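Students often ask what a holo structure prediction actually looks like on paper. The answer is less mysterious than it sounds. You provide the chain, you provide the ligand, and the output is a string of discrete structure tokens encoding the 3D arrangement of the protein together with 2-acetamido-2-deoxy-beta-D-glucopyranose.
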Amino acid sequence: MSFVAQFVRADTVRTTSGRMPWLSRIQMHFHYLSMKILRRPLLSAHIAMILACVSVLVLTTFITSVRYLQDPDKALVPWRQYCSEQPWFVRADVEHLAPVNFLVGVITVDEKFERRQVIRSTYASLTTPRHPETGQPLGNVQVKFVLGRPRKEYAERIALEMELYNDIVVLDIKETQWSRKTFEFLRWAAENATVPVLVPHTSQSHPYMVNGTPYEVRWKLVDYVLKADDDAFIVLDELERRLRAAPRTMAHWGYKVADWFMSGEVYALSQDLVQYIAHSPDIAASASRKEDEQLARWVATHPRHADLQWLSERCWVYDHPRASTPYAHGFLFPDHVESIKEEALHGLSAKELARRGGLTKALSYSTTTKWNTPYTPPRPDLTVEEGVEALIEGGGRWAHSWYRTTRDPDTPRYVSLYDFILPSDDQRLGPKLNASGEAAGPATYDPSTGLAVYAEPVSHPAAARGPNINEAWGPNLFAHEDQLRRERYLNYTVGGTVVVHYLKHDAWFYETALALLGHRPLWHRGSAANEWRMYGSPLVQPFSSTHRHIVQDAPRTHL
Ligand SMILES: *[C@@H]1O[C@H](CO)[C@@H](O)[C@H](O)[C@H]1NC(C)=O
Ligand SMILES: *[C@@H]1O[C@H](CO)[C@@H](O)[C@H](O)[C@H]1NC(C)=O
Ligand SMILES: *[C@@H]1O[C@H](CO)[C@@H](O)[C@H](O)[C@H]1NC(C)=O
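The corresponding structure tokens follow.
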């Protein structure tokens, strides 16, 4: 090799190795090796064989591990088994137990303004559990958002948000310090998670009058502290009843993953455990990185660890149907769980077992979702209401039809613009004016709804103008929804879903609220009772983003 050639080659190698050194090095070695092999044919046969064996081995391992990673059976959650094993909740008796007070700390970050607003307007707006018959408020639930020190760009907005809503706890840690957030929250809660209570009035203080009796307002530490992530939807009423039935000390409520381990997304601790964690020097010294396992380690250090009560709720805590995680399935109601229990008792027919793909798959079978597969609605043209119903395990109201008939009480009717031009005596225009231009009708207001009440009923013009305006939509909807709820809850008021997890989009909160709470508690209080229902606009395609995955062959039998 001449000096020039040597120089040129060295130069080339240097430039290539500058760009992709490993590749060129492999190329060089390969080149060198193949030259050697070609020159010594006897050795080459051995090496070729070894190489072939190794490549077959590597390939097999690769395929196996890819198969393993993609195998949906590996992580199947036998939720049907959990539901059939979940003891019946003592629904009727629980109303006689003393209500519990608790505080939910939603662990979130400074920049998630919209998420906080969505939570405030959905489940967190229902913080007063009420007696199902008397409507009397029971107990006291607080929902607070837990942040670290907000970053500079968000500080002002958060200060205003705190002032306006009074529901934000700012911990003295860096906003991004996730590993310490839960611990610092519990430390805060041990001192400051309180609810107001009334105590008999003493002469020194300012009285607070309730039905003519003087009280004073004091603060009391809550019975339970909850830690929740900001992608969880908590049905507070259900949770309150579950905690009522739980012991008030040494208790720990959540979704048990293993014998020693609760899922970190939502759990409740009795006040004494909060005090223990907040004040144990060992725990303070070892704030761990793995958020999920933190709690398990903390409670493991408790001197009376063996006496801890692990209250696990694996049936009524699950992932949102659109999540396509192993924990996802349709929204669950007690009537469907009843049928799951029946199924467990009597077993499946061989045909049904085969349809569900064997025993393992049958235990995690869902009518709505499949792990690792994006959710697809049963038909492409569902209305919003049908779309929500379709996410209910078992298929919801239209499970066996997926069509609407004109006789269906829920048939949507679009009100034409013409119908908004009301005759001058329509009561919705307000009280009639007398000759001097003043309101002739009485100006009384219903105290519960805040709506004007007229002494002279104006006959409603709806009947005269055909079916387009239906004065009774509001009450009809509620009556229908109440009836449905009674059926789904087997005539009880509680005993169903407690937490839905993994709500990755704000819209999923609305969906979950519609499915689990219904319209009644969320329509603006009072006014909706007399409100005709505004249906969605044809200009808005609610589920268009999922339409790409539509099953095309879904039959459309009737319309
Ligand atoms: C409890 O609240 C008070 C008043 O805001 C505050 O000074 C105190 O530091 C809080 N406790 C903890 C542990 O954060
Ligand atoms: C109109 O109604 C107001 C309030 O009810 C009443 O005070 C007034 O006398 C009425 N005027 C006439 C002309 O009836
Ligand atoms: C619920 O109550 C209704 C009417 O009182 C009754 O017909 C129905 O069978 C009850 N359902 C259950 C599951 O008890």
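Residues 101-231+261-303 form one domain.
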